[in-house]
Automatic annotation (TrEMBL):
InterPro entries: MFS, MFS_dom, MFS_Efflux_Transporters, MFS_trans_sf. It comes from Raoultibacter massiliensis. Residues 8-399 form the Major facilitator superfamily (MFS) profile domain. Keywords: Cell membrane, Membrane, Transmembrane, Transmembrane helix. The chain crosses the membrane at residues 5-21, 41-62, 74-94, 106-124, 131-151, 163-187, 208-231, 251-277, 284-303, 309-332, 344-367, 373-394. The keyword Kinase does not apply. Its main location: membrane. The lineage of its organism: Bacteria, Bacillati, Actinomycetota, Coriobacteriia, Eggerthellales. This is MFS transporter. It is a multi-pass membrane protein. It is found in: Cell membrane.
Amino acid sequence: MKKHAWIPVWAIIIASILISFEYGKVPPSQPSMIEVLGLSYTMQGLLMTAFSVAAIAMGLIGGTLIDRFGARKIVSIALVVSIVGNVLSLFWTSDAGLLVSRVMEGFGYGAVMTGGPVIISAWYAPAKRGLAYGVWGANVGVGMLICTGAANPILAVSDWSGMWVFALIGAVLALLMVAICVGMPADEDRQDLFLDDGSKAEKDAKHGVLWGYLAPLPILAALMFFLVGGATDAFNSFTITYLNVELGYDYGAANLCSFIASIGLLVGAVIMGFVFAKAKDKGLVLIVNIVLAAIGLFIWFSIDLPLEATYVIAFFIGCVLGAAPTAFFAVAPMTARSKDTVGSANAVIVLGQNMGTLVIPTVVGMVLDASSFMMAAMVMGGVSVVALGISFAWRSLYRKKMELAK
């Protein structure tokens, strides 16, 4: 590992937190947007959906572009598009204008989230990626916490546009971090060419564009991320409602419980970074994590305990759920078909993450409308059990890959 490898690695991590302000600015701004712009509830949902769809599209396209042209160039261009979109929305405030701007903002977010693991794996050897991947797995959570903390003072002196300016500043700083500090090492210094045992991977022959996207292990990881990550998003989306409406906690206590769970998400992500980097049997780590996640999701919407006990359980469930994204992001460089397709492998995994965010919370919401929180828990735990089955297949294939590589 090069002496100054930490500079590009932590620059892209910080940039990912800064650009996540574009994602996190909408929820706290919604009441103001309803009051000032007359925004409908449908439009609120579309603003988040448009952003996510653009991020998915950029993730898929960006994987190939990053593999071909380099992370700094592609991520920088996409961040410029995000900045232009943000500025545009401050002046073009119709529904159409806001939707167009959200699509543009999603491009930068998708590019950063796809490029980050590529950069980390290129600079850090597998055994050294623990902390970096741990923080990376929590980047969106950190960004959301910052947005939530900044929202009250900003909205006290401004309307929704104050949060947009806050996110714009974050996007500009993210662009500066990437343009100035982020780059890729020379081929002879790249650490993503090494396997877990320290041996050097052989370079593959040239293949078509889709070859990198169709690697079996990243596809299986994406499916697990879709299921477990989506269930985690549903946990985050409906926890306050469950505690406030179903259990009768006051809003402040419910919000605090959600905040404690968010802290658990961050703690779990960092711990998993170290564990996954050092573990010999990475498949077993995934299996154990998903088992614990399934248990937590099955029981969460059925607990009715004293408030202090609920806080403790929320923290530990948060830790378990927060650990999973770190592991999924970490597997891309280890399971890509070659060092030239790491971006493509990561794009597939990011696709699974974003599709889970779009689909699973919506399904859980439909279950809540038609049934109960108990049934919603069955859905959230059930999809995690499906992910558990996939994790056994992933472990078996990963072992075969390592044996063939040796």
